[in-house]
Design brief:
There is one protein chain. This protein is an alpha+beta fold and 236 residues long. Among the domains are: 92 residues, no CATH class; 72 residues, no CATH class. It is 51% helix and 13% strand. Strands 1-2-3 form a 3-stranded antiparallel sheet, with no helix packed on it. α1 packs parallel to α2 and α8 crosses α9. The radius of gyration is 38 Å and the shape is rod-shaped. The termini are far apart.
C-alpha cells in the first residue's frame, strides 16, 4: 500500500494505491480524493450554547431581582439559587437603610414584606460593605417614636426595649374604656412580652422550688405583678 497527499491553504489531493493477492487473485486498487475550501465553517453550536447560557443568566437575574424586592433573603443563602446575586439584595438593603432611621420610613419599608423578612435581609448582608446594621437603625427610629409619642410604632415589634420602658406607666391598670386608643398597639405588645417573660420566670421558679434546700416561698416577682395588672386590660 502506498499513499501521498498534496495540500495547499485551500485544497488537498490524496492518492492511495494498493496491490496484493486475495484467495489466489491479484488485487490492484487505486483511490483518489480531492477537496477545496468553500467558505467559513457554518457550525453554530458554540453560539447556540452561549445564547442559552446568557438567557438562563438573564432569567436568574430576573428571579433574584424579584426576590430582593420581596426581601426573600433565604434565596440568597449559601448554596441557594441567588447566592451569586446577593449584591442585588444588599444594594436594596443599603438603599433603604438611611430612610428607615425615621419611623415613617421604617414603617413603609417593613409594611408589605414584614419586619422579620427585612431583618433577615439585613442579616444576610452583614458581611457586605457598607454593612447595614438593623439593630442600630431600629433603635434610631424607636427613639424618634418615643419623642414623638408615636405609640403605635412601638408596637410593630422593633422597639421592645422601649415598650418595656414606656408601657407600664401608660398601660397597666387601665381598661378598654379608659386607655387612649393610640396606646393599644404598644399595650398589646407589652402584654405579649410580659407573658413571655412570665413563662420564663415560672420555669425558673419551678426549677428552684424543686430543690428541698430552697423550698421557702418565693418573693413577689415584679414581672408577675405587672402581668397581673395587664390582664385587667381589655382586649389586651
Amino acid at each position: 500500500m502506498r499513499g501521498e497527499t498534496t495540500t495547499t491553504p485551500t485544497t488537498f489531493d490524496t492518492r492511495m494505491s494498493m496491490k496484493g493477492t486475495k484467495k489466489g487473485s491479484d488485487v490492484d486498487m487505486t483511490m483518489t480524493s480531492v477537496g477545496k475550501r468553500l467558505g467559513a465553517c457554518t457550525d453554530q453550536s458554540e453560539q447556540a450554547i452561549a445564547g442559552m447560557k446568557a438567557q438562563g443568566q438573564a432569567e436568574l437575574a430576573k428571579v433574584c431581582g424579584e426576590a430582593a424586592d420581596k426581601f426573600q433573603y433565604t434565596m440568597f443563602g449559601q448554596g441557594m439559587a441567588c447566592e451569586g446575586n446577593r449584591k442585588v439584595l444588599c444594594d436594596k438593603v443599603s438603599g433603604l437603610a438611611p430612610g428607615m432611621m425615621k419611623p415613617a420610613g421604617f414603617r413603609a419599608a417593613v409594611d408589605k414584606p414584614g419586619i422579620d423578612s427585612v431583618r433577615g435581609s439585613f442579616d444576610a448582608c452583614a458581611s457586605s460593605s457598607p454593612r447595614p446594621d438593623f439593630t442600630a437603625i431600629a433603635k434610631a427610629a424607636c427613639g424618634e417614636a418615643v419623642v414623638a409619642r408615636d405609640w403605635s410604632f412601638l408596637g410593630i415589634g422593633a422597639c421592645d426595649a422601649e415598650v418595656m420602658q414606656q408601657a407600664p406607666s401608660k398601660c397597666v391598670g387601665r381598661d378598654y374604656y379608659t386607655v387612649d386608643k393610640s396606646l393599644v398597639p404598644m399595650c398589646n405588645r407589652y402584654a405579649m412580652l410580659s407573658r413571655g417573660a412570665m413563662s420564663n420566670a415560672n420555669a425558673a421558679q419551678g426549677a428552684q422550688t424543686a430543690q428541698p434546700a430552697q423550698a421557702e416561698a418565693q418573693k413577689p416577682d415584679a414581672v408577675k405583678q405587672g402581668l397581673d395588672a395587664v390582664r385587667k386590660l381589655l382586649p389586651f
